[in-house]
Input
Amino acid sequence: GALMLSVSSANVYPHSYNYALFLTSFFFVQMMKFAWDNYKLYALGKNELRPLTKNGHIGNMFGGLRGATVIDALDTLYIMELEEEFQEAKKWVEKSFDLNVNGEASLFEVNIRYVGGLLAAYYLTGEEMFKSKALELGEKLLPAFNTPTGIPRGVINLGSGMSWSWGWASAGSSILAEFGTLHLEFLHLTELSGNPVFTEKVMNIRKVLNRIEKPQGLYPNFLSPVTGNWVQHHVSIGGLGDSFYEYLIKSWLMSDKRDAEAKKMYDDALEAIEKHLVKKSAGGLTYIAEWRGGILDHKMGHLACFSGGMIALGAEHAGGEQKQQHMDLAAEITHTCHESYSRSDTKLGPEAFRFDSGTEATATRLSERYYILRPEVVESYLYMWRLTHDPKYRQWGWEVVQALEKHCRVEAGYSGIRDVYTTTPNHDNMQQSFFLAETLKYLYLLFCEDDVLSLEDWVFNTEAHPLPVNHTNFKAKAIEIRACI
Ligand code: DMJ
Output
C-alpha cells in the first residue's frame, strides 16, 4: 500500500510528493473502475460501451467475437489490483467468450486486442485458461497467411478460414501496420504451444520485406500479398504504418537483444525516416511528415505520437552520439504532441494536426478535430518519464486526466468527443476498448515506480498488453507483479 511507496522511494521524493502520488494512483484506479463498471452494467458481452445511450456496441472489426472490452481490460484490472472486477472479467472469458464464430474479422485487431490481451492475462496470472484460449484463437488466424507470398490478407472469417483484403485498401493490398504487427504475439504463441508455425509465418513476412527494394529506404504502407510488390508509395509513421516500426524495436528487446535482424531493420528504417520525414516547423516544433510518392504532406496524426516513446526506447539502447541525438528527437516529438493538446480548448489533442500555411500543431480540417480516447500521447509520456525522469511528463499526464474528467466523463462511462476545439459538449457516445487497455494503463504506470512492469522485463504490445522479455522466463506461471502503491 501507501506505506510501501513512501518507504521505497523515501530517498527520491519528499514525503508530501509520495502522498500526492498515492492519491494520484488511487484516482486512476477509480477511473478504471468507473469505465469497467459501466461497461459491465450496460454492455457486458458486447464489444464496447456506448456511454450516452447506455448500451453496447458490436462493430465490424472482430468478426463475431465479443467482449473486446473484457479482454482488453483484463491486465489493467489485474495490475491495478481491482480484484473483484478482474474476477468478473475472468469469469466472462471462462463462461461466455465464444471462439466458434463467423464473420469478417480484422487479423490485426484480433491479434493485438484478443490474442495480446489473453497472452498478457496468462503471463500475469499463470491461469491456463487464458493460454488455451489464446492458442485456440491463434490457430484460427493461420488461414489468412495462405497467399502466394505468405503476406497475410487483412480480413479473415474465423469460422470458414476464408480471407480477403480490405475493400478500401488499394488493389487488394495488405497494410504494413497490419501484417507488420503480429510478430510479438506470434512468437509467444509458438513458445506456449511448441508449434513453430506461428514463428515461421512472421519470419517469412520479414523475409519478404527484406527482399524488396524500398524507395529511399522507406517502407510504403501497401503491399500486394500476391506479387510481393509495393502497391502505392504512401509512407507514414502514423496510421497504416505506425506499429510496424514499433514491433521491430520491440522484437529485438523481447528477444533479450538477440534478434539482430530486427534491430538492423529498425535502425535502417529510422535513419530513412530521419532523413526524409522529420521536419521542423517555422515555430520550432519537430514533427514527422507523411510521404506520398516523394511529396511531403506536413501532417501528423495522433497515432504518430506513439513515436516519441518508441524512439526513446530505441535511444536507450543506442550507442555513442546516436543515444543523445535520438533521445532529443524523442523529446521534441513528445513536446510537439503535447503542443497539439495544449493548443486546443479542451486540452485534448485532435486526430491529426498540420504544419502548413501558418498552422502549427493544430487541426485545419473539420474532419480531423475529434479525440476518441486514444493513448499514443500518454504512451510517449510514460516512456519519456521512465527514461528521463523529467517531472514535466507527469505534469502533462495529469493535464490529460483533468481534461478527460472534464470533457469525456459522462454519466455512464467515458466518451470520445467530436471537436477538441470547443468546450460545448459534443460526445461521440463510444468508450473505446483501448481506453481501458492502454490510456488508463499508461496513465497509471506514469505515476507508479519504474519496477511495476519494468521496461527491462516486459514489452508492451501495441495495445499495451505486457509480454515478458525472453530472459524473464517465458514459461513462468504467475509472474510477480509489484503493486503500484
Ligand atoms: C489501438 O488499437 C492500438 O494502439 C493501435 O496500435 C492503434 N490504434 C488504437 C489506439 O489508438
User: Anything to note?
Assistant: Residues 112 and 463 are 6 Å apart (CA to CA).
